[in-house]
Amino acid sequence: MSATATLPRTASVAVPPLYEARNITKRYGNFHALRDMNFHIGASEVVGLLGDNGAGKSTLIKMMSGIVRPDAGEILIDGVPTRIENRSASERAGIETIYQDIALVDPMSITRNIFMGREITNRWGFLRHAEMERRAIEVLGSTVHISGIDDPEKEVGFLSGGQKQAVAIARAVYFKRRILLLDEPTSALSVRETEHLLDYVSRLRSENVSSVLVTHNIYHAFMVCDRFVVMSHGAKVFEAAKRDTTMEEVTDHVIRT
Amino acid sequence: MAAHNITADSIAAARGGGSLAGRFRHYVRTRPEGGIVVLFVLVQMVCIVAGLLVPAQFRYLIPANIRVTLQSVTPLGIMSLGVGMLMIAGEYDLSVGAIYSFASVFAATTTNLYFGGATNPIAPFLGMVAGIAVGVLAGIINALVTIKLRIPSFIATLGAMLLWNGGVLLYNGSAAVSFQPGSPFVNLFSGQIGVIDAGFLWFIGLAVAAYFLLHHHKLGNHFYAVGGNPGAAVAIGIRPFRVKMAAFAITGGLAAFAGMIAMTRVSSVQPGGGQGMELQSIAACVIGGYSLTGGRGSILGAVLGTGLVFTIQDILLLLRAPGFYFDMFVGALIVLAVVMNTAIRRKG
Predict the structure, then answer these.
(1) Which of A64, A132, A139, A151 is most worth mutating to test chain B (most B CB atoms within 10 A of its CB)?
(2) Hey, where are the domains in chain B?
(3) Which of A28, B68, B104, B277 is 20 to 30 A removed from A229 (C-alpha atoms)?
(4) B285 Cα to chain A: minimum distance (Å)
(5) How much is the pTM?
(6) A232 - beta bridge partners?
(7) Contact between chains at A87 and B232 (C-beta distance less than 8 A)
(8) ipTM
(9) What's the fold here for domain B21-347?
(10) pLDDT digits (tens, 9 = 90+) for A103-138
(11) Interchain CB contact of A105 with B (< 8 Å)
């Protein structure tokens, strides 16, 4: 497939989306991880990103987070063309990510993991431990209810998979910006923990934080998402608002393609 | 769900409750240096008791013994501070012993040849700055080769070790270099205050500085992050290149400084003086609870690890054991310390 972009569509709405990717292509050698992919996230919207393994969902998420650079295509933040080629650029654009392969450091404490790379320091760069611990307790206690986390000084390596995911979510929640990307966030969670997380995503929407939920579980997607995008072989094969489609139709597209 | 929330009570309970014994158990189980603190205190207690009971046979507490032990801890201790920080950042430096030699020979010769030698009191200070600059530069080269060429630091710094070991012979030949700085310099880096040597005070001062850098500064936090899980560090926006570059540079600078402290004490420097110290410093860190895979360790661990190695050496010297016993005991100590730390962590 050609890497050259087609003519950009003119936005049909007055307000441009928070995030828009146009005609994105990403190749690894001969393998097309993304081909001519178009994707956007509106204000106060939860988008379900679906598709089988290897469909390109994770690559798309990584590109939005600035970890992966597209080979071709254009990214617009609030309608303004922007280059997002590293993590700090995506942070500036208000994007926060929870990864599938939980991005935590096992030998570090929960507090240090939450504030890793964004430490609260004094003007000489020395850490303000008490302040960070206070906020960690706050976010762990109020937003993500995960049993068994009793001490923010605990090393993450001693936590269960669900607890680790909770810490990752707490981190994303604490640094919530405008767009939250969740890459298979529920794979390590119990039923109750999953429910809490999905509730939380809905609550964030009412606080004007949009989310992209990558999942295999179409039930979960239908619980919170406003719009569904189904991918296959690096391209978008189906897109519909929740009110215009059914679970059967979405499932059909995920399975068939 | 209230029962699951974090409260002051749950935190206190998780940290061992109100009792001193509980808090101590929590400390030993969770801190990397927990095991070595216990072992170090036990060994010191046994030595002090033995020194008090049989002072004539076991002269552990006489001032001369304390002075010499503190002096001998200093160079390896200073080196281990850097080597340990680099291990936490997930890299090794096998060239520290060679940097130790090369930088001190460089400092001595520049002092003698270019800065006016013994007649100029400023000369040794300039020489020392030059030597530390060489050490930092060598560290930066290690970082560039390791990270930019994407090869394991074990290999990159093994090459650097051979390069600097050869380089010092090329530059200077195999003869020892005399280093006779004026008294301000000697007093500052090797003066005696009672049984305590000025070099040892530098070691303690650097250890405190390293403690604040590693445990209480953003950069130290990033050492743990890039060493503990490089992928996570990148994903969160930490740049491993910069962080590791800083760790390599600090390690090189400390190795050079360690060499110059030792050189000042004996007023000369041997071109091969640092050989073997690269593995000794890694051993001291491992004994002190550092992980070989990065992300775990503490300054107190490096200090006590080095301290324990030299306490063992001192005990063997006092007991008039032949020199080869030292290597055997340190070998056993390394394995014992790792077994102990692993067991403690499994229990925790």
Answers:
(1) A151
(2) 21-347
(3) A28
(4) 16
(5) 0.85
(6) A235
(7) no
(8) 0.87
(9) ABC transporter involved in vitamin B12 uptake, BtuC (1.10.3470)
(10) 899 999 999 999 998 899 999 999 999 999 999 988
(11) yes
